[in-house]
Amino acid sequence: MAAGDDETRIEFGSAGPTTAGRMADAARREAAFPIGAAARLEELELDPHPLLSRLREHEPVSWLPALGGWLVTRRDLALQAMRDSAAFTVDDPRFSTGQVVGPSMLTLDGAEHGRHRDPFAPAFRLDAVRQRFAALVEAQTDRLIDAIEPKGRAELRRSLAGPLAACVTAHALGLEGTDTATILGWYDAIVDAVSGVAAGKPVTPAGREAFAALRSSVEPMLDRDPGSSLVAAAASQAGGLTRAEVSSNVGVLMFGGIETTEGMICNAILHLLAHPDQRALVEADRGRLANAVEESLRLEPAAAAIDRYAARAVRLGGASIGEGELVTISIAGANRDPASFSDPDRFDVRRENVRHQLAFAQGPHVCIGMHLARLEAHTAIDRLFDRLPHVRLDPAHPAAPRGLVFRKPPALHALWG
User: Fold this and answer.
1) Mean pLDDT (the chain, rounded)
2) Distance (Å, rounded) from C-alpha 89 to C-alpha 219?
3) How far apart are CA 250 and CA 275, in angstroms?
4) pLDDT in tens, 131-156
5) What is the DSSP string of 120-143?
6) Which helix (DSSP H) or strand (DSSP E) does residue 279 occupy?
7) Within 13 Å and on the Cβ side, how many CA atoms surround 96?
8) Most confident option among 17-31, 127-141, 206-220, 233-247
9) pLDDT at 57 over 60
10) Calpha distance 278→348 (Å, rounded)
11) Which phi-psi region, left, alpha or beta, contains residue 218 (left: φ > 0; alpha: ψ -120 to 50)?
């Protein structure tokens, strides 16, 4: 029986109080979880899927010294951890996003999580998103394609996906007066800071400065009429959040609204352009586009992993997790679980159960902006194929997703003509 299965009974609930005890505990863990012990950060950043497959089969909850915590790769166990916030919490001072922008709906659980999330939630419901954003998203997509169409080539991450996500996020948060380049600059610095913390580095000065600049832009809106913007409504007496709390949540919404949407659009374009047979199916029936986007999310989720901390000593998938220990849930691993998805490494726009993918997480922290992100991705790809029917990948600039936590191609060069 492989280490990590339910029959494994090695207890690791707490490290010894001495250095020798901690070293012995680490040695026991590495012996019990050899695949995880051998894992390297570079492997997880560049092409994690072969490693995640081995872990999912043999060590579905594994100890990875490279991460300083546990990694969950099996879909059923990922769901269990995401849904049980009493056992697996985000409310920990080590949480990477919280270190950069402060406490928010992303870093709190229970009643406090609801207090932070509830003032923003109505604006992101499906009917509200369609009513408020559909025309804006289409107009902005066409504006961006207008700018690149005559050139015959473009890098689509920063000429289409990123600016679209930034513009729509700015509109959602009432930041229309701030130009897209400035917002993307803040976003880059915050993403870099969060990714660095996840890899064990301190918060960068650039990340702190970017959030301070964002907060300065938000503060003038806080005293306006609650009907003037989502931010003003959250800061009102009815919203019930302090000025600092509103700013932290705006930081999270800006960061998430751009990062996951930009990655989602880039990854979907890359998958479709790299698989001409699947693209042809979508071109022949645009009704398949929504399924194609879901399949891209399954195959390469823009947020590949999410962090939790064990609120108490707990067993999961045969592993004994100590109180306070880091538990990273691999969305990328869960989304390729062969127990749920046949031929899981294949991109198949006709996959019938693709909506079972977990790219937007589940449980209390399911992504608040998932309907808006889907609207942007569907519109961007639909208009791209309408406007630039001969669009193709530029062979001089190969593209592939990269990233430990947030995965997308660093650049996505395309040609048409």
Assistant:
1) 91
2) 30
3) 37
4) 999 999 999 999 999 999 999 999 99
5) TGGGGSHHHHHHHHHHHHHHHHHH
6) helix 276-284
7) 26
8) 127-141
9) yes
10) 7
11) alpha
Residue with tokens 């000025």: 243
CA-CA distance, 262 to 184, in Å (whole number)?
A: 11
CA 180/CA 163 separation, integer angstroms? 6
Closest-CA residue to 73 (of 99, 54, 95): 54
Amino acid identity of 336? R
DSSP 178-215: S-HHHHHHHHHHHHHHHHHHHTTPPPPHHHHHHHHHHH
DSSP class per residue in 147-165: HHGGGSEEEHIIIIIHHHH
Spatial CB neighbours of 92, under 8 Å, sequence gap ≥ 6: 98, 107, 309, 324
pLDDT greater than 50 at residue 61: yes
Q: Letter for the amino acid at 42?
A: E
Q: How many CB atoms lie within 10 A of CB 142?
A: 15
Q: How far apart are CA 39 and CA 52, in angstroms?
A: 10
Residues 261, 163 contacting (CB under 8 angstroms): no
240-297 pLDDT, tens per residue? 888 889 889 988 998 889 989 999 999 999 999 999 999 999 999 999 999 999 999 9
pLDDT confidence band for 18 (50 / 70 / 90): low
- With 50 as the cut, is the pLDDT of residue 187 above it? yes
Placement of tokens 């003038």 in the chain: 220
Residue 198 CB partners (closer than 8 Å, separation 6+): 96, 307, 404, 405
CA distance 74 to 58: 10
Both tokens assigned to 357: 């993918």
DSSP 8-class letter at 322? P
Element (H or E) spanning 392, and its range?
strand 392-393
Distances (CA, A) of 73 to 7, 22, 120, 135: 18, 26, 31, 39
Instruction: Give the Cβ contact number of residue 73 at 10 Å.
Output: 31
Q: Hey, is 283 helix, strand or coil?
A: helix
Which segments of 59-109 does DSSP mark as H helices, in order?
A: 75-83, 96-101
